[in-house]
């Protein structure tokens, strides 16, 4: 035996070093374990490496130019998928930018998790002036459904699990997850780390309604002479599409869809009362709310949009018991998830269900047809410059020919008129500003819709609304997404003809005249179009959507077209003081 062999033979065996993992990898592993494959965010200290590592581990990481738009993308991803969308931001200012989207997600019941890096607790609590020092957890709590902080790597798995369950269960909403910077670099045994991860089982369990609640609701419906169903975006989120269609058709009750519920049944369905909305609301005697809340969008269930006080009885399906009686009395509250509640109503109707009186159906049909006929000439004009109606009439035809495309819509007149003019044919194909009516959701929603569904996206924007998130056209181009943006350009907010009475400055509502938004898209490698007639608009949008490339159509609208705040001008207070001349 050689000396070398003796040495090798007699040297004690060296124990293998234990495999280690760290906070970065545990966050990624926890998300992947729960089926989350996409992160929306803006890189920077202290989460830059988290994004890099997530990408290396096979996750899709979509980087935006501003956290608010990344947050909006995450929120609408949650709406479309029923899994919480993830937004990743840096600390302090980045966190605050994402907070608007988090609060909006909570208000709209979209499952979303905002994950932000943060400064260390011992420095924040003593207010010692750390980099981007801020008590982010305390700030987030009032604006979201739940907020958690993880201080130890071994708790990352349970922290992510709690955030997922909080975001999805019951009424969905936004959740904040605070991850201090030094958490990411914490090292623990890899096997222990793996065991610490939690796969969330049944994050949104069915909540079946009480049998007596269903019986009560059916008794109220049976007594109705002029019943109406109102479908809200909660009904769209539920993905109980076939059951909802069966409820409408079996009951024979006309329905009005709120904007993001359009397409649950085609807007051209014989029982759709969308084009006769005012008559349907005002004259109905029993209203069944399915995933819709009696908030300002429905005039709180009272006032001039409805009949005489107390003349309308409301049945409400909602998973949140506290929603009942929030504005008016709910005579038949049905608490549970929408799929279970709708199915229970269907089961209770049985074979002998009596459909509503034919005169009620005929009244709404006559009003619907009259309104459609009255609107038709406005939609067919090919004048230049375009009116809102003529431009939307062109897009209406395009959407009819491309029912699988996703429509994103925001603005004032651009939004309000599009809701009524553009028919939808499939569920979850219309995404807009939702409950708060905030502007700036456009590009974030468009990016997430393209990423999550792979479908073409038509994004119809007012020029003011586009200004909130317009820089994200670079994001759309960077990822080569099939998004066609149409900017209705009338040179201002509401209209482009206002003036400063002093003659010193432009009016507060006026933009640079004849702006060329199409050239913004061209600057980043996309395709730009400048159009002045509905025919040109039709050709440009069809060409762009056929190509499946990033495109922006600058649609010139008459600067005098439009009215203040569209259909909600009444919410804008008027001064009670008349200044003496």
Task: Describe the 3D structure.
There is one protein chain. By secondary structure, the protein is an alpha/beta fold. The chain has 3 domains: 177 residues, Thiamin diphosphate (ThDP)-binding fold, Pyr/PP domains (Rossmann fold, 3-Layer(aba) Sandwich), CATH 3.40.50; 154 residues, 3-Layer(aba) Sandwich (Rossmann fold), CATH 3.40.50.1220; 183 residues, Thiamin diphosphate (ThDP)-binding fold, Pyr/PP domains (Rossmann fold, 3-Layer(aba) Sandwich), CATH 3.40.50. The chain contains 23 helices and 19 strands. The protein has a 6-stranded parallel beta sheet with strand order 3-2-4-5-7-6, with helices on both faces. Strands 15-14-16-17-19-18 form a 6-stranded parallel beta sheet, with helices on both faces. The protein is globular.
Number of domains: 3
CATH domain class name of the largest domain? Alpha Beta
Low-confidence stretches: 1-8
For the biggest sheet, the summary is: 6 strands, parallel
CATH topology descriptor of the largest domain: Rossmann fold
Please give the number of β-strands: 19
CA-atom Rg in angstroms: 27 Å
Short synopsis of the structure:
The chain is α/β, with parallel strands linked by helices. It has 23 helices and 19 strands. The longest helix is centred in the middle third of the chain and has 23 residues, at 358-380.
Give the topology, please.
Elements: H1 3-10, E1 20-22, H2 23-33, E2 38-41, H3 48-56, E3 60-63, H4 67-81, E4 85-89, H5 93-108, E5 112-118, H6 121-126, H7 136-140, E6 146-149, H8 156-168, E7 174-180, H9 181-185, E8 187-189, H10 190-196, H11 211-222, E9 227-231, H12 233-238, H13 241-251, E10 255-257, H14 277-283, E11 286-290, E12 313-318, E13 332-335, H15 338-349, H16 358-380, H17 388-401, E14 406-410, H18 413-421, E15 430-432, H19 442-453, E16 457-462, H20 463-469, H21 473-478, E17 483-489, H22 518-523, E18 527-531, H23 534-547, E19 551-556
Parallel strand pairs: 2-3, 2-4, 4-5, 5-7, 6-7, 9-10, 9-11, 11-12, 12-13, 14-15, 14-16, 16-17, 17-19, 18-19
Antiparallel strand pairs: 1-8
Helix pairs in contact: 2-3, 2-8, 4-5, 4-19, 11-15, 13-15, 17-18, 17-23
């Amino acid at each position: 035996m050689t000396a070398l062999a003796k040495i090798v033979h007699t040297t004690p065996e060296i124990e293998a070093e234990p495999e280690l993992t760290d906070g970065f990898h545990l966050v990624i592993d926890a998300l992947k374990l729960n089926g989350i494959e996409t992160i929306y965010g803006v890189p920077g200290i202290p989460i830059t490496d988290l994004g890099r590592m997530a990408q290396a581990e096979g996750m899709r990481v979509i980087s935006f130019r501003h956290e608010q738009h990344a947050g909006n993308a995450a929120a609408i991803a949650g709406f479309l998928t029923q899994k919480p969308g993830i937004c990743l931001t840096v600390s302090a200012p980045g966190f605050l930018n994402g907070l608007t989207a988090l609060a909006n997600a909570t208000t709209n019941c979209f499952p979303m998790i905002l994950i932000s890096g943060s400064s260390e607790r011992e420095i924040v609590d003593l207010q010692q002036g750390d980099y981007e020092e801020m008590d982010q957890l305390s700030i987030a709590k009032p604006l979201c459904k739940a907020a958690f902080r993880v201080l130890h790597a071994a708790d990352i798995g349970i922290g992510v699990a709690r955030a997922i369950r909080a975001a999805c269960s019951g009424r969905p909403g936004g959740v904040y997850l605070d991850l201090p910077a030094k958490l990411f670099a914490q090292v623990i045994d890899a096997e222990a780390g793996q065991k610490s991860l939690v796969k969330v089982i049944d994050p949104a369990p069915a909540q079946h309604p009480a049998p007596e609640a269903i019986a009560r609701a059916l008794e109220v419906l049976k007594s109705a002479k002029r019943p109406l169903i109102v479908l809200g975006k909660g009904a769209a989120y539920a993905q109980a599409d076939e059951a909802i269609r069966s409820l409408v058709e079996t009951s024979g009750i006309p329905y009005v869809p709120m904007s993001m519920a359009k397409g649950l049944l085609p807007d051209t369905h014989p029982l759709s009362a969308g084009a006769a909305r005012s008559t349907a609301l005002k004259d109905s005697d029993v209203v069944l709310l399915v995933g819709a809340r009696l908030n300002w969008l429905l005039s709180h269930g009272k006032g001039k949009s409805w009949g005489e006080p107390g003349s309308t009885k409301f049945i409400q399906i909602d998973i949140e018991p506290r929603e009942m009686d929030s504005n008016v009395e709910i005579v038949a509250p049905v608490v549970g998830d929408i799929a279970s509640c709708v199915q229970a109503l269907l089961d209770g109707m049985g074979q002998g269900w009596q459909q509503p009186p034919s005169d009620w159906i005929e009244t709404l049909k006559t009003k619907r047809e009259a309104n459609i006929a009255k609107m038709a000439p406005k939609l067919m004009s090919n004048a230049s410059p375009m009116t809102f109606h003529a431009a939307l009439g062109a897009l209406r035809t395009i959407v009819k020919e491309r029912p699988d495309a996703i429509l994103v819509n925001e603005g004032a007149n651009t939004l309000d008129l599009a809701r009524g003019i553009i028919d939808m044919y499939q569920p979850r194909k219309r995404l807009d500003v939702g409950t708060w009516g905030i502007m700036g959701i456009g590009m974030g929603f468009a990016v997430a819709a393209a990423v999550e569904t792979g479908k073409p996206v038509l994004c119809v924007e007012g020029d003011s609304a586009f200004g909130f998130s317009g820089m994200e056209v670079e994001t759309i181009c960077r990822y080569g997404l099939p998004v066609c943006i149409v900017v209705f350009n009338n040179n201002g907010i509401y209209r482009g003809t206002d003036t400063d009475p002093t003659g010193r400055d432009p009016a507060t509502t006026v933009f640079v005249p004849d702006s060329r938004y199409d050239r913004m898209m061209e600057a980043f490698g996309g395709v730009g179009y400048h159009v002045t007639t509905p025919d040109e608009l039709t050709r440009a949008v069809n060409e762009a959507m056929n190509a499946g490339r990033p495109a922006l159509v600058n649609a010139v609208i008459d600067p005098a077209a439009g009215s203040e705040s569209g259909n909600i001008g009444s919410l804008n207070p008027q001064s009670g003081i008349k200044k003496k001349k």
